[in-house]
């Protein structure tokens, strides 16, 4: 059943890889790995969006897998037609330095341990952590178990604690895979969480290997996988890891655009940001903050053109998210305080102090390493020194602004939350920091001196 | 070899060692979650299988009653929300709403709570008793 669950998602992943390749035609093995990991998540994202439309039109049918297979066949034909003169496989000559071998050996151990952690979590909690089964797997059950009446999943009669307003990326993917397999098996959400874990860690590593060096990619992965965030948190089937994946996808694609000026990368970045909004409500905030961040960062480089390409990619997921929020989803509980109470809360200085204290405490402890990973990165930057490239200033600015604005957005949500503030912070802050930690790691290791260079000079 | 170079090497070695050490801790934590043999959610689903079969429809709204809804009955407040969410997850695509105002209600009551409840609702419901403190109630009066 596990193999079948993997196979059922393969056409969607291949569709994603082909879409990425069609919009970003660069070649080479390093690029290919980035395309594979971008294609994995974007492919799963497009499948979820298209299944949403499919269910609106043909909720009695079980043929969505054939839609994905047809899409794959169509895209493959286009790619083969376009590439038939360039189809050459040239295997790279791989030579590792002693430093890279040490780093890769350490990384291999950590990868094996993380994989064992994930397998343990899946075996012991097959339905996932509390949020996972209560929100995402529950949504998938509503869609799968009553296909003709699936819109009842968003009934106002549903208790708000089940968050029927949450976007459907995970729920739709799980439900259509169950439909395709013909069985409601927990292997499907487990495989889905595994694919996002792989894609998230893989994209961080592959993108740093492409833009910086193998050593740089290895250290970033050691810091990501060594925390409990991928092996344990990622395996819990919550939406935070897929969301972090779409954050880093957007950020990597914006960075790559800044260095190559290929519009296809911006279209993909917009698409990834839209998929973030289709994954979790925090993704809608992310989608909003990327627009001014891009405008400011590329202000001297035809900002309207940049935004145009970006919004082109964003349009499809945005339309789906808006349709879902406007016509199907019950109101969100986070914004249920009302304007007057929200303003009162925002003016309450004790709430600011509580939030700032919690942000500070999380900064000092995040990652589960006793001392926080973020202070470790600060020390790392002081020792290895920053080496930003002046050509990539818009990329650093865009990514930096996105992360800062997103963090401010989280701050604002805590200010106006209708829930008990401390409870809300305790329940969610660690996961919010995790969402930003993955793209932050990418930004950090693009700015700091390559480890190979730093250790080449004594 | 200057001090900064040594610091860089120490930093890298520290990151590798810490990453491996905490990965082992993470694995230990993962191995401490629940039991391999029994999954509480699956057990909860088995408990409600009979209720699902007896309900005359597969979608719709059903009431949900527990000890906490019965004045005078004792209950564990810590489990209330968890059991409600578990039952909703189990019963999907049926929507559960708290209380007994719907035509059909699932009651999860211990014997004392059921006694108290039945004294004050005599004749208003057809009661189908089931295993494990579960009752399916059908409202007879509108």
Secondary structure elements and pairings:
The complex is a heterodimer of chains A (458) and B (142).
Chain A: H1 2-23, H2 29-57, H3 64-83, H4 98-124, H5 130-145, H6 169-181, H7 187-211, H8 214-225, H9 229-233, H10 240-260, H11 263-277, H12 281-297, H13 303-328, H14 339-346, H15 349-365, H16 373-384, H17 393-416, H18 421-447, H19 451-454
Chain B: H1 3-31, H2 40-54, E1 60-66, H3 77-91, E2 94-98, E3 104-108, H4 111-120, E4 125-129, E5 134-139
Helix pairs in contact in B: 2-3
Number of strands of chain A: 0
Strand content of chain A: under 5%
Question: DSSP strand (E) fraction of chain B?
Answer: 15-25%
Number of spatially distinct domains of chain B: 2
Distance between the termini of chain B: 88 Å
> What is the mean predicted local confidence, pLDDT of chain B?
91
Please, could you describe this protein's structure?
- The complex is a heterodimer of chains A (458) and B (142).
- Helices cover 74% and strands 0% of the residues of chain A.
- The radius of gyration of chain A is 22 Å and the shape is globular.
- The mean pLDDT of chain A is 94.
- By secondary structure, chain A is an all-alpha fold.
- Chain A starts with a helix and ends with a helix.
- Chain A has a domain at 2-89 and 111-327.
- Chain B is α/β, with parallel strands linked by helices.
- Chain B has two domains: 1-33; 40-139, no CATH class.
- Helix content of chain B is 49%, strand content 20%.
- Chain B contains four helices and five strands.
- In chain B, strands 2-1-3-5-4 form a five-stranded mixed beta sheet, covered by helices on one side.
- In chain B, helix 2 packs across helix 3.
- The longest helix of chain B has 29 residues, at 3-31.
- Chain B starts with a helix and ends with a strand.
- The mean pLDDT of chain B is 91.
- At the A-B interface, helix 4, helix 5, helix 8 and helix 16 of A face helix 1, helix 3 and strand 2 of B.
């Amino acid at each position: 059943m596990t193999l079948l669950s993997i196979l059922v998602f393969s056409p969607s992943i291949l569709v994603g890889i082909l879409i990425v390749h069609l919009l970003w035609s660069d070649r080479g093995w390093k690029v290919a790995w980035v395309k594979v990991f971008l294609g994995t998540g974007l492919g799963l994202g497009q499948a979820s969006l298209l299944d949403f439309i499919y269910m609106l039109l043909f909720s009695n049918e079980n043929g969505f897998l054939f839609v994905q297979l047809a899409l794959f066949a169509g895209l493959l034909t286009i790619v083969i037609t376009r590439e038939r003169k360039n189809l050459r496989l040239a295997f790279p000559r791989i030579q590792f330095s002693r430093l890279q071998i040490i780093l890769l050996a350490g990384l291999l151990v950590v990868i094996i341990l993380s994989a064992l952690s994930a397998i343990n979590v899946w075996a012991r909690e097959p339905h996932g952590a509390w949020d996972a089964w209560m929100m995402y797997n529950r949504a998938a059950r509503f869609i799968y178990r009553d296909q003709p009446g699936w819109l009842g999943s968003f009934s106002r009669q549903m208790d708000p604690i089940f968050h029927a307003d949450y976007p459907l990326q995970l729920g739709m993917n799980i439900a259509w895979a169950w439909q395709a397999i013909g069985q409601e098996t927990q292997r499907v959400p487990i495989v889905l969480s595994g694919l996002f874990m792989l894609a998230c860690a893989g994209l961080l590593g592959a993108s740093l290997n492409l833009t910086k060096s193998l050593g740089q990619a290895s250290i970033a992965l050691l810091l990501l996988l060594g925390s409990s965030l991928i092996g344990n948190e990622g395996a819990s089937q919550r939406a935070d890891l897929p969301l972090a994946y779409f954050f880093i996808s957007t950020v990597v694609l914006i960075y790559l655009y800044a260095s190559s000026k290929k519009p296809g990368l911006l279209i993909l970045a917009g698409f990834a940001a839209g998929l973030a909004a289709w994954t979790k409500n925090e993704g809608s905030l992310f989608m909003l903050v990327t627009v001014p961040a891009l405008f400011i960062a590329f202000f001297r480089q035809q900002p309207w053109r940049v935004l145009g390409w970006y919004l082109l990619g964003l349009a499809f997921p945005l339309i789906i998210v808006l349709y879902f929020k406007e016509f199907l989803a019950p109101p969100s509980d986070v914004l249920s305080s009302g304007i007057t109470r929200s303003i009162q809360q925002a003016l309450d200085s004790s709430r600011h102090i509580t939030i700032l204290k919690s942000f500070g405490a999380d900064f000092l402890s995040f990652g589960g390493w006793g001392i926080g990973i973020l202070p470790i990165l600060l020390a790392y930057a002081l020792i290895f020194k920053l080496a930003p490239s002046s050509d990539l200033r818009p990329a650093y600015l865009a990514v930096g602004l996105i992360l800062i604005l997103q963090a401010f957005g989280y701050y604002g949500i805590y200010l106006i939350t209708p829930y008990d503030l401390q409870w809300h912070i305790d329940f969610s802050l660690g996961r919010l920091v995790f969402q930003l930690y993955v793209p932050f790691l990418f930004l950090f290791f693009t700015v700091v001196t390559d480890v190979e260079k730093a250790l080449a000079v004594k | 070899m200057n001090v900064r170079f040594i610091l860089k090497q120490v930093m890298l070695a520290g990151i590798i060692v810490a990453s491996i050490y905490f990965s082992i801790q993470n694995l230990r934590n993962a191995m401490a979650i629940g039991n391999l043999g029994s999954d509480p959610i699956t057990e909860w689903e088995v408990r409600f299988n009979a209720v699902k079969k007896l309900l005359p429809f597969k979608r719709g709204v059903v009431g949900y009653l527990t000890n906490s809804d019965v004045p005078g009955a004792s209950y564990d407040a810590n489990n209330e929300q968890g059991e409600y969410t578990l039952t909703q997850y189990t019963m999907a695509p049926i929507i559960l709403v708290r209380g007994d105002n719907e035509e059909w209600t699932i009651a999860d009551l211990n014997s004392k709570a059921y006694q108290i409840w039945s004294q004050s609702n005599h004749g208003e419901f057809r009661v189908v008793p089931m295993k494990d403190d579960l009752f399916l109630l059908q409202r007879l009066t509108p």
